[in-house]
Amino acid sequence: MAPSRFMELAEREWARARRYGSGAALLVVEIDRYARLVERHGRAAAEAMRTALARDIAPTLRAADAMTEHGEGQLAVFLAHADALGSLDVAERIRERAELLEIAPRGETLRVSIGVAHLRAAHLHLQALVEDAGDAVAAARQAGGNCVRAAPVEVSRFPAPGPRRDDQRAPKR
Q1: Mean of pLDDT values over 83-99
Q2: In 3-state terms, what secondary structure has residue 146?
Q3: Could you give the C-alpha distances from 5 to 9, 52, 78, in angstroms and in order?
């Protein structure tokens, strides 16, 4: 998908998720040691690897999701209607699929680092979500690569199990 069309779709889905509280996430998928790949094999070969990675990831995404190139050696994946755990699951599946791809020259394994940012109340603009995903992929890179890292997630407050204090019913025996 063209970057401009991706941003258009992401803006629309981001606004919908904020309005209805349906959840959304942005993944930044970065090929590990991309600069070294370019140096060793040339820019055309490195870009071919990114294209092959995108082609392999695409069938795993839902119709409401979107993917585009994002920076050098990166892909951005917008997940509509996604919760935090589901987003991490998708990211881990992408990471595992990348390792299975036989696209790296000389039998090298392609590895990726993935940053996940789930929509939070603090994301007043889509750019804030993009920045959080960028920070998360930087954390994955600093951890040595070939892993998934998430930006901070807001924990929803669930009621404690059992009867509520204002519950007047007698406990069942």
Answers
A1: 94
A2: coil
A3: 6, 20, 12
